[in-house]
Write a structure and sequence with these properties.
This protein has 210 residues and is mostly helical. It has helices at residues 2-21, 25-42, 45-50, 52-66, 83-102, 108-122, 125-132, 134-143, 162-166, 193-197, and strands at 148-152, 172-175, 180-183, 203-207. 58% of the residues lie in helices and 9% in strands. The radius of gyration is 18 Å and the shape is globular. The structure holds iron/sulfur cluster (SF4) (2 copies). One iron/sulfur cluster (SF4) is lined by residues 152, 157-163, 174, 181, 197-198, 200, 202-203.
């Protein structure tokens, strides 16, 4: 499963680079718009499999850990949770102004790609995914209504927290007196990391309660 997921990510990264270098950024933004509709049914699969930022952030995190650059702290100025919305509005406005006044297509996706990698050198990926990414905040808004998502079988879960440690977006946590893992669908990228490490095979992709 791990290799299949990596191959899918590399395929979309290559597609992204081809489209961007050929000046077809709008095609990718179209794919993103379709993925928002898909998130209503399948959850945030764009974030887990398609997003070039996520794919490069995985390597950035690995390198950052090797170089011991990553800190566990979250920046205080991000804690109120509004920054991603501000980033979305500023990005959209910058694109519009560049197009209308300067008659250029602002390379907004490559700009965010660089920002995401730089931030991941310092902070855990969840900081960018949950508090900064302007695309992630939209995925989150649609993803919370997902009909299908990762779900924990409480009877099988032993509360070992291995899933919690493997999650790139802090979407799964062992909580409550009975110490069972619970997934926040809004934050979940449907990435399979937690499934791969669970010693009890307690996590599955299935229908959500509405
Ligand atoms: S890894 Fe599996 S058994 Fe361990 S806490 Fe997570 S869901 Fe439960
Ligand atoms: S809860 Fe599991 S599937 Fe969802 S983002 Fe975290 S590791 Fe990935």
């Amino acid at each position: 499963m791990k290799y299949a997921v990596t191959l899918i990510r590399l395929f979309f990264l290559a597609l992204f680079l081809i489209l961007i270098t050929n000046g077809n950024m709008m095609l990718w933004l179209g794919l993103f718009a379709v993925s928002l509709m898909a998130a209503l049914i399948f959850g945030r699969v764009y974030c887990g499999y398609v997003c070039p930022m996520n794919t490069l952030m995985i390597s950035a995190e690995w390198l950052s850990k090797k170089l011991k650059l990553q800190t566990k702290n979250k920046p205080k100025w991000l804690k109120n949770g509004y920054f991603a919305w501000i980033a979305l509005v500023v990005s959209a406005a910058a694109m519009l102004i560049s197009k209308r006044i300067l008659h250029i297509n602002l390379p907004i996706l490559p700009i965010w790609l660089v920002i995401s990698v730089l931030i991941t050198f310092i902070y855990k990926p969840a900081v960018f995914h949950n508090l900064i990414c302007p695309f992630g905040i939209l995925q989150r808004t649609f993803g919370k209504f997902a009909r299908l998502s990762k779900k924990v079988n409480e009877d099988a879960c032993i509360g070992c927290k291995l899933c919690e440690k493997s999650c790139p977006s802090d979407a799964i946590a062992v909580i409550g007196e009975d110490k069972k893992a619970v997934i926040n669908t809004e934050l979940c990228h449907q990435c399979t990391n937690c499934q791969q490490v669970c010693p009890k095979n307690a996590i599955h992709y299935s229908k959500q309660k509405q």
